[in-house]
Design brief:
The chain is an alpha+beta fold. The protein has one domain. Helix content is about 55%, strand content about 20%. The protein contains two helices and two strands; from the N terminus they run ββαα. A two-stranded antiparallel ribbon has the order 1-2. The radius of gyration is 20 Å and the shape is flat.
């Protein structure tokens, strides 16, 4: 299996390949996910969706 890289822009004419440590990225994502309040996230997504729908269909909030 080959190494994974991303390209990082350092300036207008300069880029640099940067090796990705997939294991570290996944471990970090898992740790961050453990602290997510799913009920709060669901409420925030629902409210944002409602706001977008009200704007799109020009419905006033109650």
């Amino acid at each position: 299996m080959g190494d994974e890289f991303i390209v990082e822009e350092l300036g207008e004419d300069t880029i640099a390949p940067k090796k990705i440590n997939l294991r570290a990225l996944l471990e970090d994502a898992i740790e961050k996910a453990k602290s997510v309040d799913l009920d709060k996230l669901e409420r925030e997504i629902e409210e944002e969706s409602n706001q977008l729908a009200r704007q799109k269909f020009k419905v006033s909030s109650r």
